[in-house]
Design brief:
34% of the residues lie in helices and 14% in strands. The protein is of the alpha/beta class. The protein has a single domain (2-167, 178-182), classed as Leucine-rich repeat, LRR (right-handed beta-alpha superhelix) (Alpha-Beta Horseshoe), CATH 3.80.10.10. The N and C termini lie far apart (37 Å).
């Protein structure tokens, strides 16, 4: 990855999006993170479909990143990955494989700035419910059905995307399509 970044920084240091998908990257090293942080205009990083098992502990030099795609990487420990992602102050859109309902809940509770998860808009008001009797805000765990809905939607996003891309109606511009909305 370091070689790809060195080449990119000499070619276009003002890039706002990088796509390192399918590059057989197995290690997201701190030196690469540091180099990515030097791209002052960079907002989106696509590391999908690589072999990344672990994220560096500190991603704070990626302070300008709003969207990160880690889908298709065999992340070994989601808790450690989320702790790393918590160091990215304005991360608002994340794509990552989630396999259990508890993972969705853990991720959403620990990344409060996240507005889009796997292409679905997260409705934060539904996660936090107000206790009507005491007037105190309390967290309520997501129900099993709500968590299943997120996981099912994540799995169906690939199918929906494939269907849209193969649609013969060329009159619809994909940039004008609304993002799917999911209320938890």
């Amino acid at each position: 990855m370091l070689g790809l970044l060195k080449e990119l920084i000499t070619r276009n240091p003002f890039v706002d999006e990088v796509d390192f998908s399918n590059e057989a990257i197995s290690y997201f090293d701190p030196h690469s993170v540091d180099l990515l942080g030097r791209f002052t205009e960079l907002k989106k990083i696509n590391l999908s479909d690589n072999e990344i098992r672990k994220l560096p502990n500190d991603l704070s030099c990626l302070a300008q990143i709003i969207e990160l795609n880690l889908t298709g990487n065999p992340i070994e420990n989601l808790q450690l990955a989320v702790e790393s992602l918590m160091t990215m102050p304005i991360l608002s859109s994340l794509h990552i494989n989630l396999h259990q309902e508890e993972e969705v809940d853990f991720l959403l509770r620990n990344l409060p700035g996240l507005h889009v998860l796997n292409g679905l808009v997260v409705e934060r008001d539904a996660i936090f419910s107000e206790d009507e009797e005491s007037g105190v805000h309390t967290d309520r765990p997501l129900s099993s059905g709500e968590q299943t809905t997120i996981i099912d939607a994540q799995q169906n996003m690939a199918q929906t995307s494939f269907s849209r891309n193969n649609n013969n109606d060329k009159s619809v511009n994909s940039d004008t399509q609304q993002q799917p909305f999911l209320q938890l």
